[in-house]
Design a protein that fits this description.
The complex is a heterodimer. Chain A is an alpha+beta fold. Chain A has 5 helices and 8 strands; from the N terminus they run H-E-H-E-E-H-E-E-E-E-H-H-E. The longest helix of chain A is centred in the first third of the chain and has 14 residues, at about 1-15. Chain A has helices at about 1-15, 35-45, 75-85, 140-150, 155-160, and strands at about 20-30, 50-55, 60-65, 85-100, 105-110, 115, 125-135, 175-180. Chain A has one domain (about 15-180): Alpha-Beta Plaits. An 8-stranded mixed sheet of chain A has the order 2-3-1-4-7-8-6-5. By secondary structure, chain B is mainly beta. Chain B has a single domain (about 35-285), classed as monomeric porin ompg (Porin). In chain B, about 0% of the residues lie in helices and about 60% in strands. Chain B has strands at about 35-45, 55-65, 70-80, 85-105, 105-120, 125-135, 135-145, 155-170, 170-185, 195-210, 220-235, 240-250, 255-265, 275-285. A 12-stranded antiparallel barrel of chain B has the order 1-2-3-4-5-8-9-10-11-12-13-14. In chain B, strands 6-7 form a two-stranded antiparallel sheet. In chain B, a hairpin with a 2-residue loop joins strand 8 and strand 9 (about 170-185). The chains are: A alpha+beta, B mainly beta. The interface of A and B includes residues 32, 35 and 41 of A.
Chain lengths: ~180, ~290
Amino acid sequence: MQKIFIAIITLFSFTVAHSQIQKVELQASGLTCSMCSNSINKALNSLSFVESVTTDLNKNIFTVSIKPDMKPDLDAMKNKVEGAGFFVANLWAHANFNQLAVKNDAHVTVDDITFHFMDVKNQTLNGTQKIKLLDKNFVVAKEYKKMSKLTTMQCYESGYMDECCNVGRKTTKQRVYHVTIQG
Amino acid sequence: MRYIILCLLILTGFSVHAQELYIMSDPASNVPAKSIGIRVTNKLMPRPYDNGYSYRVLPEVMFGINKNFMIRGMAYASNMFQRGMQLEGGNIYTKYRFLSVDDLHSHFRMAAFGKVAISSNPLTMQHTRQHIIDGTPHPITNIYSSNEIELDGNHSGFNAGIVATQLVHKLAVSGTVAYTNRWENMNVPGVPGISRHAANYSLSAGYLLLPRVYKDYKQPNFNVYVDILGTNALDGKGYYLDVVPGIQFIFNSISRLDLAYRVQAAGSMERFNTSSWLLRYEYNFLNALMKKEK
């Protein structure tokens, strides 16, 4: 009986793959003064899922702590930076994974979030990983152009799932986050 | 790490704002969306008839509507044309950023701007002094006129132009070209022969002296600026080229204090004054126009 109980528990922990983003680092481009950084700092702090923001004023990197049990809206963060008059040059999310099998240039859905991993080896993700967002307007133009060569799937251009992958799904467009693993 | 910022001042002879923190003009960048800023500018201008100065105060309020569009309203009052301070009029300035290409250490931006101004000032300055001849005072009235179309107090009219700002490895270069057209001032008779329209251009540069390395938002920033401002009357009324050195303090990354001295380096245009001092304070309310999410 005990053996069956342990087996069931073990089965559960291996089949329920999930991810949780606790921290996001965002590097803004196009600014060089602390008053400019302050406008981004205040804009990010106004988002409901943000616990706190610390700034590296010399590198223009904003480290955003996400409130526990809340999901960050990365597009909303980018819109806040653009509203302040700047752009996102780099965004890294520190996410917890639990036995997530990922394949290069393929979709994987976890906790209702669809990721499209690019430029990675096929692997199983476990623990905290630093993933870099590669979507348009989350990287500088040069980097977007370079990354475009690594996939032929249309979703990288639009940020949304194309018809080829949308078989049998709901009709509302599904956002796809294109990411790579950063060390 | 050497942290060099070249914030460029674009001098168009008009008011100023921005992330590039210009004293005498506006950059191609915009103010943050949903922000409100307030400014008070003070100008001291030497009088042509004695060693005194005229004083003008110019309060402003600015709104960041969205990331590309801003609008700014200004009022002005001075004792330039009469004893005592008098409200002279106001203007509205708008700017639309239509291009922004950003890389990590560089950006190129362009914006179009326009200003519409009204002023109730006379077009000439009059001063009467008593000239003593054989013990008898004889009043002599001197009339001073100016062909410098000035839309921040002196004249009614409009101005429109394009500004481009290039930031490369912390060196920012800004250039402006604009066209200015003068209307008749409110409730005053026209004076024939005064310039009706002009072309304006400018080039600016700035440098962040302190802090050398940022520690936090509370550190005061100290910037130095130099602007070159040129105007050519389009109806043969002359030209001028002004140089404007300036210094700026930023407090708590939210407010700033500017001090600048403007002086003519070359020119043939008749003007009320060929130099002036400027002192301005600005405070920003970020997210002031935003609906609260939390």
